[in-house]
């Protein structure tokens, strides 16, 4: 198992009524996740609405996560950017704040070619002495990192893992720990011998997902059990549906920042049914 842990939750960033970062709510949720299956968290990733946090907020959330992490758990800081200088800056600062690793997404929108991607990660690697987790998510970035490119990037000192969110690319890569980047491939990743998953549904079914890690004989059964919930949470972008689920469970009051908008009543109905499918909110109809 990776030293970073097997089940890592891409934690949402709670906001108060004025949509400022709610530090107390973040710390409370962080503690809750680590008490319910998570070996650690990824702070300010996509689900953490990193794209609408300024640098001061971004780094403060990472600082909070490091300062208040429960003993024995890990903190990975999201430090990716489509500007290499910015990614290096965030990586350097997150390293100074004490993260255990950084998650660095492929540059998005400007869609660099292969040589540009390699140079990007070479520069980011110079900014830290912590492990770098590559993040391949072509549906968001517009560029895919095929497995032969991942193998090439594994040769860069410090690049140690990949969060693979292209289900068609899922495979072990020599020199890289493999993390499921989509919740629906956690079981497959574990069966392949991967390190685990960087997940979102673990906000609400972390104990079950941790059981998938520790009980291979029940993995397929649990995978099938949580599948309706995963489908329900896909009714809206992850930060929206996850915060809606947490509100239904009384664990959060936060909304989202524009251009994201809170879940509609119809979407909340779908999410409620998904939670009920795994035994949460039993008997609750409103």
Describe the protein in words:
There is one protein chain. With 286 residues, the protein is of the alpha/beta class. It has a single domain, classed as Alpha-Beta Barrel (TIM Barrel), CATH 3.20.20.70. 43% of the residues lie in helices and 13% in strands. The chain is built from 11 helices and 8 strands. The protein has helices at 23-35, 55-68, 84-97, 114-126, 138-141, 147-153, 186-192, 202-214, 219-233, 238-248, 265-277; strands spanning 7-10, 40-43, 74-78, 101-105, 132-136, 159-164, 177-180, 196-199. It has an 8-stranded parallel barrel with strand order 1-2-3-4-5-6-7-8, surrounded by 6 helices. Strand 3 (74-78), helix 3 (84-97) and strand 4 form a beta-alpha-beta unit. Helix 9 (219-233) packs antiparallel against helix 11. The radius of gyration is 18 Å and the shape is globular.
In short:
This protein is of the alpha/beta class and 286 residues long.
Give the helices and strands, then pairings.
Layout: E1 7-10, H1 23-35, E2 40-43, H2 55-68, E3 74-78, H3 84-97, E4 101-105, H4 114-126, E5 132-136, H5 138-141, H6 147-153, E6 159-164, E7 177-180, H7 186-192, E8 196-199, H8 202-214, H9 219-233, H10 238-248, H11 265-277
Parallel strand pairs: 1-2, 1-8, 2-3, 3-4, 4-5, 5-6, 6-7, 7-8
Helix pairs in contact: 1-2, 2-3, 3-4, 8-9, 9-11, 10-11
């Amino acid at each position: 198992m990776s030293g970073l842990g097997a089940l890592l939750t891409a934690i949402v960033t709670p906001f108060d009524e004025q949509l400022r970062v709610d530090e107390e709510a973040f710390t409370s949720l962080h503690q809750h996740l680590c008490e319910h299956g998570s070996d650690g968290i990824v702070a300010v990733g996509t689900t953490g609405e990193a794209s609408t946090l300024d640098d001061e907020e971004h780094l403060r959330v990472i600082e909070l996560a490091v300062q208040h992490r429960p003993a024995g758990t890990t903190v990975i800081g999201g430090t990716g950017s489509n500007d290499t200088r910015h990614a290096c800056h965030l990586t350097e600062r997150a390293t100074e704040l004490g993260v255990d690793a950084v998650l660095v997404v492929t540059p998005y929108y400007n869609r660099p070619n292969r040589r540009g991607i390699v140079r990007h990660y070479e520069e980011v690697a110079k900014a830290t002495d912590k492990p770098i987790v590559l993040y391949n998510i072509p549906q968001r970035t517009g560029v895919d990192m095929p497995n032969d490119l991942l193998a090439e990037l594994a040769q860069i000192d410090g690049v140690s893992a990949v969060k693979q969110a292209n289900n068609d690319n899922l495979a072990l890569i020599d020199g890289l720990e493999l993390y499921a980047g989509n919740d629906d491939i956690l079981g497959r990743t574990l069966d392949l011998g991967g390190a685990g998953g960087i997940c979102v549904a673990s906000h609400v079914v972390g104990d079950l997902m941790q059981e998938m890690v520790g009980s291979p004989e029940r993995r397929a059964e649990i995978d099938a059990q949580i599948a309706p919930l995963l489908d329900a949470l896909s009714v809206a972008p992850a930060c929206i549906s996850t915060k809606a689920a947490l509100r239904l469970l009384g664990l959060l009051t936060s909304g989202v920042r524009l251009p994201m908008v809170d879940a509609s009543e119809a979407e909340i109905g779908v999410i409620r049914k998904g939670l009920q499918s795994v035994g949460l909110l039993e008997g609750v109809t409103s």
